[in-house]
Amino acid sequence: MFGPVTIIGHQVIGETLAFALVSGDNTFTVPQGATACWIQGPVNGSATLTLRTNQNQLDVGLPINGLGLPTIYPFPSSQPSTMTINASADQTAPLTVIFI
What we know:
Helices cover 0% and strands 41% of the residues. It is mainly β. A 4-stranded antiparallel beta sheet has the order 1-8-3-6, with no helix packed on it. The chain has a 4-stranded antiparallel beta sheet with strand order 2-7-4-5, with no helix packed on it.
């Protein structure tokens, strides 16, 4: 067991996205000044999810939890401008992304 974990941003971002995933790439913009994000997979999801950014679009992607458990993704020192969640299947419950 470890924690608690604290991530401190340099400004208040206050942006939350919630959307249903379609099969394939789902790309969205990262707000300027964000230092990390909390990604909450769809509750009772059934798809395999991977994460990429505009900085590594040719990568296979980082596997993230698609079953409703959170993933915390701290950004590298050079903040990405977009993120892409690839889903292996359509999902009806929303994926939630909270920017820090």
